Amino acid sequence: MKLRLFDPVALEPAEATRRRHRVIALVVLLAGPALSVMADLHARTGFDAWKATHLLLFAVLFGLIALGAAQALIGFALRRGAGDPCRIDATLTPEEEARAVTARVAVVMPVCNEDVGRVIEGLRVMYESVRRTGLLPECDFFLLSDSSDPNHWIEEEAAWLALTRGLGAQGRIFYRKRRGGINKKAGNLADFCRRWGRHYRYMVVLDADSIMTGASIVRLVQLMERHRHVGIIQGVPVLVNGETALARLQQFASRLYGAVSAAGLNYWQLGEANYWGHNAIIRLAPFIRHCALPELPGAGPFGGRIMSHDYVEAALMRRAGWQVWLATGLAGNYEECPGNVIEFAQRDRRWLQGNLQHARLVGAKGFHAVNRVHFALGILAYLASPLWLAFLAVSVVIAAHFAAGGAVTQAASFGGYASWGYAAQATWLSGFTLALLFLPKTLALLDLRGRPETVAAFGGWGDLLGGVVLETVIFTLLAPVLMLFHTTFVVLTLCRKKISWGTQRRGAAGESVLAETIAAHAAHTVIGLVGLVVVTRISPGLAWWMSPILAGLIGSVPLSYFTGSLAVGAALRREGLFKTPEESRPDAELTALAAGLSTRRRRVPPELADNYGLLQAVVDPYVNAVHVSLLRAKDELPPASEERFVGLRATLLRDGPAALSPADRLALLLDADSMHALHDAVWSAPAAHLAGWWRRALAHYDVIAPAPETALSPPSEPRMAVGG
Question: Positive or negative CA dihedral for 501, 502, 508, 511?
Fold first, then answer.
């Protein structure tokens, strides 16, 4: 359906305010009856401090549920009605869609110790897709590495060279390795902006697992060209390529429920939307000018460098007068997701600390009110878990008092409930809560009526409904497990325990490991068993009411292990469960990515694998030359430092990589003279003078080395220097 065109900048502030007031009114309308019933239930048995705390916790938690339900209701109404005219992705005229793009665009992918094969194949697919659109003359690609692991670093360099040679993309795809990963991804992007941002009008930001089709990138650029007062347009990526049961479940749920919720989200966010840090386009000039991140006063975790940079950058862009929009209908926009519960929780731990840090910014000067709401909701997204745990604990205490005979039921306090009994009120409240929780799912299914092609792409109504039921059961059981994870992370953060930003294991690498699963969930199992004993002694009815929570905790080990299983994921796929349209009718880019990954099988002997990057950089003439050329020039070393490097080189050649510490191996890789000397020595020294590891490395290289004329032919000179 083609919507009427509009200019986001011309949207009347009064209309935006009215939309937000409607959302607030709907939330109050949904939450009000539940709050009044809960208040009356407590009034019947006499208010005390426990019940006042219980009511306050219920108000916060139910308010979040009501907000989700309100967004789903609004989104459903928009999608089933005339549509929302305030959708930025539906504003291009046919003439604008056909017009060639002339703006310079940088497509940037920050990486840190990621699966190099997946990263390179993703870049290859996107590069070829952009070439098919005709945008390539205005588009450059940047692989911005913060990898600290030498294997990843050298493999990135070698794979980048192979990619540029294979595509004929010299001067189009650039690689940069930072010497120090200051401020993580935000610092990596800031470094790019300082060095090369002035050469481009727009920057498309990706994650290591992102895929965007050329058509989606072109459309984003065209939208930015049309709306000259928009600073950021954030796409809503679809989850793809899930292999484990949990990954397939996540992509099914987000694909099925996401469209309705995103439409409701856009209804009130409008030009004050959020930036999620990837799969988005940014207007570089205002971003560079206004979005430099401040360093918060004090030490971590709440002070220091900002960890969750994206929300803050969106707020800074809006504070400078530029709009930020959510492109809810952008096609060809994909990302991947964690494969098991532990990886899922670890990713949340990083986000949690960054979001809690935003408490310092909620009241900062100059931010738009909606950006303050984003900060607050981001904080509540994780504080909801300890609040829920506290709500459950207070519920158990109140139930214990009630069971001990310390409470007497009185008549209803409010006239509207005079004819209700205590049990009827409690039953109604439970039913109403469940109804709101399941309302977004129900509306998403109703939204598919009249869309037979989409239903068929999900596998038909049978597979679709079966997937919804199974997904609901699994997520219901996982919810208390994630609640305890998040509560633990909040406590650790409040105790000023800093969080390490590790690399997410994706794809097949994200499969559950039994020992890791048992260690992670042993405490959850014990808490579930103790909780079962306690609530059963208090009241069998309470145990029945809390049974989904207790079952999830008690069964957390098998639940986590099997949902993270590749075999279970494959079995579900064979049965047609959790099928998505992207599996039934994949874009050419997704098909090409899968085909490319299936052919990337590196055969490395186990004894060489731990230091394979060092092997490539020292042994392979081509990789050695490229690696040295990308190192930053340095001043002459003092004699003491030179002697140290001579000793390290001798130890490495005589005893092998295991004789050096990781820091020493990294120091050699950063020293151009050492890399020249090691390459010469490995190829010229008698075999008896080399460690057995190097002899095996040379034998392996003789098997896998390409023909000399292919390996040594120089690439074309790039237009822009990379390195340092």
Answer: negative
State phi, psi for 89 to the nearest 5 degrees: -75, -5
Tokens of 130: 């952009």
pLDDT at position 9, please? 53
**CA distances for 587 relative to 213, 327, 495, 580, 676, angstroms:** 9, 19, 47, 12, 45
Q: Which whole-number Å values give the CA distances from 654 to 606, 673, 686, 689, in the listed order?
A: 20, 18, 11, 6
CA atoms within 13 A on the CB side of 722: 23
Alpha carbon distance 602, 609 (integer Å): 10
DSSP letter for each residue of 93-111: -HHHHHSPP-S-EEEEEEE
CB atoms within 10 A of CB 281: 27
- Which burial class, exposed, middle or buried, applies to 45 when counting CB atoms under 10 A from its CB (0-12, 13-18, 19+)? middle
Count of beta carbons in the 10 Å neighbourhood of residue 349: 22
SS3 233: strand
Sign of CA dihedral 605, 152, 595, 509: positive
Q: For residue 38, what are its two tokens?
A: 């809960």
At residue 566, what is the residue type?
Answer: L
Is residue 583 within 8 A of residue 108, CB to CB? The reply is no
Closest alpha carbon to 618 in 656, 644, 647:
656
Q: Say what the pLDDT of residue 455 is.
A: 93
Could you tell me whether strands 230-235 and 280-283 are parallel, antiparallel, or unpaired per DSSP bridges? antiparallel
Distance between CA atoms of residues 8 and 2, nearest Å: 17
Cα separation, 442 vs 310, whole angstroms: 32
Structure-token match 């989104």, residue found: 75
Q: Cα separation of 16 and 19, whole Å?
A: 5
Indicate the SS3 state at residue 296. Answer: strand
Q: What does the alpha-carbon distance between residue 392 and residue 523 come to, in Å, rounded to a whole number? A: 18
d(CA 381, CA 703): 53
Of the candidates 347, 308, 338, 337, the residue with the CA atom closest to the CA atom of residue 486: 347
Q: How many Å apart are CA 427 and CA 697, to the nearest integer? A: 71
Q: Which residues of 233-259 are buried (b: 16+ CB within 10 A; e: fewer)?
A: bbbbbbbbbbbbbbbbbbbbbbbbbbb
Q: Name residues of the chain where pLDDT drops below 50.
A: 1-5, 415, 501-502, 706-724
Q: Which domains does the chain have, with CATH numbers?
A: 101-208+221-226 (3.90.550.10), 606-712 (no CATH)
Instruction: Report pTM.
Output: 0.89
pLDDT at 11: 72
425, amino acid identity: Q
- Per-residue pLDDT at 450: 85
Conformation bin of residue 233: beta by default, left when phi > 0, alpha when psi is -120 to 50: beta
Could you tell me the two tokens for 566? 């590749």
Alpha carbons 53 and 397: distance in angstroms, whole number:
11
- Per-position b or e across 201-223, b if 16+ CB within 10 A of its CB: bbbbbbbbbbbbbbbbbbbbbbb
